[in-house]
Amino acid sequence: KPRLYSGMQPSAESLQIGNYIGALLNWKSLQETHDAFFSIVDLHAITVAQDPAKLRENTRRTAAQYIASGIDPDASTLYVQSHVAAHAQLAWVLNTITGFGEASRMTQFKDKSAKQGSDGTTVGLFAYPILMAADILLYDTVVVPVGEDQRQHVELTRDIAARFNTRFGDTFVVPEASIQKETAKIYDLQNPLSKMSKSAESHAGVIWVLDEPSVTAKKIMRAVTDADGGVVFDRENKPGVANLLTIYSTMAGRTVQSLEDEYAGRGYGDLKKGLAEVVTGTFGPIRARVIELLDDPAELDRLLAVNAARAASVADATLARAYDRVGLLPPR
Ligand code: AQP
């Protein structure tokens, strides 16, 4: 089976529905056909300030949400990034062959550092994509399923891998980005022009996987729409309704056309009610399973340890190969 790598940051108590649709849903089906590594990328999360106690807790919670959403920790390797030391170690080596100008062109850094201000922006945030390159290359990854926003980082990974191979001899597999289609991008319910995000300033437009069903339903009923009244998919002129239709169609596994047909001539209230049922119907059982998993943290930690050992056995071999190629003297 082809190797696959992907991850998410434990940067909030709950994942949001964009993470579920944009990542978890695809991961779930991809794990059938791939040798998949799914990481909880805590080293990436600390590139912006995190509360230590919360980070620890959110890391477990994120793991529980992966499992409850259908990632099988026996079939796939589901682990915490910092449990495998090779990530930080290989990132250092890759730092030394990445151009400063090259890294400076990353648009995510420009966006995120603008939000942090010059005092809050760290070297870690700047080096984020190079750590991501290490994540991917350690597992001889062929497929990297990511959103459009990550395309540039996977391109950088390809450049770094090819450069290393040219300079030091064949060492890394050069991966392919497998970009999820634009329709899978979910927008904030209160501001349908901006991406839904865990770190949004206001939570009013964010659907959390772990919210109580009544809270989720209320947020959906209050979603921003328009005065036109027609249930039609038109991203440009009706971004709010288009977003609701995207969420509905991916969560229910139905085409947008069939939803437009069903809700033709009915109001937005009906559409929202239908959507709320579908979302709470999916997240209700996930939430219950997460609560169960978190109730036994020792078992969860044991599972993560077993998976980390499996990841390390692959990653350590790649790291050793890379260290050797650049001429680092092996310890006796
Ligand atoms: N709104 C979205 N629509 C579709 N996919 C999304 N993803 C995130 N938001 C949406 C996908 O979820 C995964 C999570 O990646 P991440 O945790 O590394 O961080 P992110 O992409 O920056 O996600 P957030 O929720 O916005 O987190 P914060 O606020 O912490 O930065 C990725 O596969 C992403 O494509």
Automatic annotation (TrEMBL):
It is found in: Cytoplasm. Its EC number is 6.1.1.2. CDD domains: TrpRS_core. Keywords: Aminoacyl-tRNA synthetase, ATP-binding, Cytoplasm, Ligase, Nucleotide-binding, Protein biosynthesis. ATP binds at residues 9-11, 18-19, 147-149, 186, 195-199. Its main location: cytoplasm. Catalyzes the attachment of tryptophan to tRNA(Trp). This is Tryptophan--tRNA ligase. It comes from Cryobacterium glucosi.
